[in-house]
Request: fold
Amino acid sequence: MKKKKIFATAMIVFSVMLSSFTFYAYQIFFTANIQVGKEARLFTIYPTSTFKEIQNRLYDEQIVTDLVAFSFIARIKDYDKYIKPGVYNLKADMSNLEAVNLLRSGKQTPVRLTFNNARRIEKLAAKLTANIALDSATLLPYLTSDSIARSYGFDSLNFISMFLPNTYQVYWTISANELLDRMKTEYENFWSEERRAKAAKAGLTAKEVSTLASIVDWETNVMEETPSIAGVYINRLKRGIPLQADPTLVFALNDFTIRRVLNRHKAIDSPYNTYKYKGLPPGPVMLPSITAIEGVLNYKEHKYLYFCANPDFSGTHLFARTLTEHNRNAAGFQRALNRQRIYK
Reply:
């Protein structure tokens, strides 16, 4: 009888312990442990991150409430041995198992890649890598390499035109080659048969459209003017008249502080000197916006051959058909510059 009581007591204790262990195991695996509020949170794991560093960040940033439980599941799942860098979307009230499975799977959340307004390839490299793991020093040699540019159908002087300013979704761990491949795909998608037909109508290739658009983009901040300004340059190209575009001189001189182009600036011997050499320069003088590209493709047909900035500094321009009319407009703008004491 006594043995039966001992056995019964032991069974009760075992059942209680088993129930407690089962309940605790269930809590460890399936109870919410990711506390990031109502909104999900992006958590970045760097290529050099160790498991210990990840643990510390999860705790210090108050993402997990029970670090011991999270670490226990992570080790059971061998996550400490298979850390995958990237940006991960940790949702509110995720369990340890859900969180570890996500991090271990490598299923990243895409990040936004946004870039525009780059005047030099170095600036473009910095903008392209601002929100991804890749750094500009690693990417820049790819952007300046003639052989790499040729592999994508460009050269080092016009390679910048392959990058269309916009916002893209990419993985944070995207490599240099993957990034270039993605930009090439976006470029080919943009240059539809319709756009290429418009370029041909203007007597330009897609690359030449980007080069001309870069000049147009530099010339004005009033985007409604881009078709009219593009029309002036296309008229000059068709007639064999030098473009005489000030932005190309500033680019050639590599001095972006210049606000007033002088005769001495026009003496520089550079293929970008469109006062000295007819036709388009070898490549864009800045990263052209899509608005400017569309402005060239949909250029306004008119008879203007000249334009100059409006002396009211509104950012608009005065257009002229004859040199006499243009000289009159230009003299007015020069006087306005003098009044503002802008001499260089």
In short: Residues 320 and 326 are 5 Å apart (CA to CA).
